[in-house]
Amino acid sequence: MARSAIINxxxxxxxxxxxxxxxxxxxxxxxxxSLKGPGDYVSQAxxxxxxxxxxxxxxxxxxxxxxxxxxxxxxxxxDQHRWIVDPLDGTTNFLHGIPxxxxxxxxxxxxxxxxxxxxxxxxxxxxxxxxxxxAFMNDRRLRVAAxxxxxxxxxxxxxxHLGRGHHGRALVELKNVMxxxxxxxxxxxxxxDLAYVAAGRMDGFWENWLAPWDLAAGILMVRxxxxxxxxxxxxxxxxDSGTIVAGNEAIHKAxxxxxxxxx
Length: 263
Hints:
Radius of gyration: 17 Å
Strand order of the largest sheet: 4-3-5-6-7-8-9-10
Number of helices: 8
Distance between the termini: 48 Å
Helix content: 25-40%
Number of domains: 2
Order of helices and strands: HEEHEEEHEEEEEEHEHEHEHEH
Number of strands: 15
């Protein structure tokens, strides 16, 4: 598969940061870890990966702005383009030696996501998507699953933990989805959850209390694989609301209706 110049830039940054993460993952017991909040750990590996990505992308496209998990917003001379980066999505998995974590890089042009890369270095799975060009995993074309009934569907989600989210609301949503589906999975990396929906490994996904860097690349991935994404109200304010519902057309619609139930 021939990749565009911009995807090549993003892949190079993700792979270089991935090599760094893979080395640190192999020595996970020796990582220097600082506590940022309840259950939300920031490791030296996380910071190092972000520095690598920032350096690589800045060198390739000088002047582009950034929105990064650790550094936050970084202004650039080019007000039309912004990189949205999560250098380590699934930090808690990483620190516990669970090989489900990812690097997520998206390019936003004039407020629209036009390219995305999600890379799991532990499994060497590289997901790429470009607006209008489809979605791929290790150069294999992706399509969302074709199941049309929630009763046949396996659905991913995130479950709020200590100090995060509204546990009561999450339990209501979980109860309602449990009663309608064939299974629920909690992987611990929203970016990979969305990549798995794009790949047809999971039929749908919903989560609340997310940040733009958790979502940006994955939203494009799902859409370029033929799927649908919205916020929990059915709109497009995913970055503002921190919520997402994803799946093929039928699953997205059914999942949206299920999680909107009040009790």
